[in-house]
Amino acid sequence: MDLTDLTPAERRVRDAFPRGEGVDFRESADDDPLAGGSWGAERTVRAEVLRALLLAGPSHDGEIAGLKLSGARVTGRLDLMYGTVEHAVRLRFCHFEQAPNLYGAQLRALVLSDSVLPGLSAATLRVDGVLRMTCSRITGPVRLQGAKISGAVFINGARLGRPSAPDTPDPVNGPDGPDGTDGPDRAASDEPVLQLNHADIGTDLWAVGLVAHGQVRLNGATVGGQVNLSDAELHAPPGDTALHAETLSVGTDLHAMRLRAHGRVNLSGARIPRQLNLAYARLSHPEGQALRASSCVIGELWLREAAPIEGAVNLRRSQLDLLHISPEVWPDRVRIDGLSYRALAPHLPAGQRLPLLEREEDGYLPYAYEQLATAYRTAGDDAAARTVQLAKLRRHRRTLPRYARFWGRLQDATVGYGFRPMRAAGWLLLLLCTGAVAFALHPPHALKPAEAPGFNPVFYTLDLLLPIIDFGQEGAFAPRGAYQWLSYLLIATGWILATTIAAGVTRSLNRQ
Predict the structure, then answer these.
(1) If you write DSSP's letter for every residue of 400-453 in order, what string do you get?
(2) How far apart are CA 77 and CA 75, in angstroms?
(3) Model confidence over 10-39: pLDDT tens digits?
C-alpha cells in the first residue's frame, strides 16, 4: 500500500510509528469504544494502513518503532496472517469493524485492552512478550489454539460472547452485521468463545473477573505459572461445558475463588501441583456433572465456603494431598472410586463424613471407606477411623445373602465387628449375672453327691459360657426342666460369643 495516500488521522499514526509514540484519538477518558461505529473520519484508520506500517513501516535511526494507538475506529480486516512483526502492537480503546486475522503471525507483544472486537483469529500465534486483552469486549470467538506466548496472557475483566437471549443486540454491529446479515458471533454460536486449547503460556494466565457467554477451552494447554479465574462468570449453553480444561498443566496454582460457572467444569486429567482453589465458588450444572476432575494430580483442592454444588461431582482416580470441603457442599450424586487424599479439612466427626459415601453412583465401594479411615488415622483420630471401618462392614452387609446378613448382624450386635470390644464384656457380664442368679435360686442336682464339689453359681455359669475354661462345676451338676434349657442357651451363646470375639480380635490384628 502507498503510505502517502492517507487521511489526516492515518498520517498522524504514520508519523508517530517510527518513534513508537502514542496517538490518542479519544476526546475524553470516558469515551466508550462500543460507540465506535459512529466515530467519524477524524478518528478512523484503515486496517490496511496498520498492516503496511507493521510489516514494512518506516523507522528512524536511534528510535524504536511501534504501533501505539488509542480510541480509533479500525475499518476493514487487520490481516497479519503468517506475518512477522518486529514491533510491539498496542491498540487500546479501539473499535474493530472486523475480526483481526493473526493466524500464524509472530509478534513482539500484542495489546488489545479495553477494545471492542467482533472476534479474533490468532491460532498458532507466536508472541515474544505478553498478550493483553484486559477489559476487552469481544462478541465472536477468540481463537488462540496452539498459540505460544512467552510471557503472560491477561484477559481479566474481559467480556466474551453474548448472552443467549435472542433479542440481545450485538454490541459491535447491532442485531445484524455491518452488511445487514447476522453478525459473526451468531454464525459461530456453538463455537467456544475463548480457545486456548494446546496453547503454551510461559508465565501466567490472568482472567480475574472474566465474563464469558460460551465455552472457555483450555484443554491440553500448558501454563508455566498460575491460572487465575477468581470472580469469573462462565455461562455455557444449557447442558454444555463452561470450562473445558482436560489435561491442563499448570506450573503452580489454579485460583478460581468466587467463580460462577453455569455449566460443566471439566478438569479431567489436569496437573496442578499446588492448589486448585474453588473457595466461595458456585458450580451449577443440574443436567449432569457440575465438576469433573477425574484422573487429576492436585496438591490441594479447596472448596471452602463454596455453595452447595448443583449437579454431580466426579473425582474418580484423582490424587490429592489435601481435600478441603464441608459435607454440605457435596451434591446428591458423586463418583469417587479410586480417589486418594492424605488429609481432609475441616476436621469433623466421622458421622458427618460418612453420608457422602452413600451417594456414590456406583454403589458400595470398599476403597472409599478405607481411604476415609486412613485420612482419620493420619490425623491421629483412631476413634473416627474405627467408626468408618464399622460403617464399611455394615454397608457391605447389605450386599450379602440373607443368611450372611444374619451372621453379620450378630457380630455387629455383640462386638461391633471387633471395633467395639467392650460390647463383648457387657454381654458376658449380662449372661453371667442372669445365669448366676437363676442357678443360685434353683441349684442344679449333683450327679455324684459324694464326689461333687461345693456348688458355686458364678463359676458354674462361667463353665457353661466359656468353652475353653473348666472349673469342674459343669460336669458335676445337672440342671432339670427349664433350667436345663437355660444351660443349653448359655452354652450356645457362649460358643457364638467366643467365635465373634475371636473374629474381631483377628480383624484388629490384621488392621495393625
Answers:
(1) S-HHHHHHHHHHHHHHGGGT-THHHHHHHHHHHHHHHHHHHHSPPEESSTTTPP
(2) 7
(3) 999 999 999 999 999 999 888 999 999 999
